[in-house]
Each structure stands twice: as C-alpha cells, then as structure tokens.
Design a protein that fits this description.
- The protein is mostly helical and 31 residues long.
- The chain has one domain.
- 94% of the residues lie in helices and 0% in strands.
- The protein is built from one helix and no strands.
Length: 31
Amino acid sequence: DAVYNHPTSTEAFNEVLATIVRVDEPHTANV
C-alpha cells in the first residue's frame, strides 16, 4: 500500500507543477 501511495504523491506533485507552468505560460503571453 505504501509503495503504491509513494508514486501517487509524485504524480500529484508533477500535476501541480504542470498546472503552475500552464497558468504561468498564458500569464506571460498576456503581459
């Protein structure tokens, strides 16, 4: 169970990073 939870946390972190980059991309383009 713990082994399955470990990759899940990493995936969630990656998703958050991707979301930040996606939000930052249009923001820079708007400026």
